[in-house]
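lol ok so funny story. i was supposed to be doing the assay writeup but got distracted and ended up predicting the structure for this chain instead. priorities right. anyway since i did it might as well share w the group, maybe its usefull for someone
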Amino acid sequence: MATEATTAATASVRHGSSFLRTAIVLQTLTLFLQAVSAGLLLTSSYGETLHGVGARVMYGASMLYVLAAVLAWKPGGGSPRPIWHASGFLALASVQVVLGIAHVPAVHVPLGVLMFGLSVLALARR
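and the output, tada:
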C-alpha cells in the first residue's frame, strides 16, 4: 500500500516537472518569436499587429509558467524556488508590456533580451 502511494507521488512529481519544462519551453519560444516580430515591426506593415498579438501570447505563457511552477511544487512538497523565478518573470513581463505600450524602446528592447536570456537559462536548468 505504501509503495503504491510512493509510486503515485513520484509519478505526480514527474508529471508536474514535465509540465513545468513545457511551460518554460513555450515561454522561451514566444520570447524568440517576439524578437522576430520586432524585426518585422520595423520592416513590414503587419509587424505591429504580429508583435501585439505575440505580446499577449508571451504574457499568457508567463502566467502558465507560474501555474506550472505551483503545480510542480505542490504535490511533491519540494522547494518553492521555481515559483519565485516564475513570479519574477511574470513581473518582468508586466514591466515589458507597460514599456511597450508607452513606446519606450530604450528600455523595452534590452529588457526583452534579458528576458530571453533568463528564459533560456531557466530552460537549461530544468
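Helices lie at 2-43, 47-76, 81-101, 105-125. Residues 5-9 have pLDDT under 50 and may be disordered.
back to the writeup now i swear
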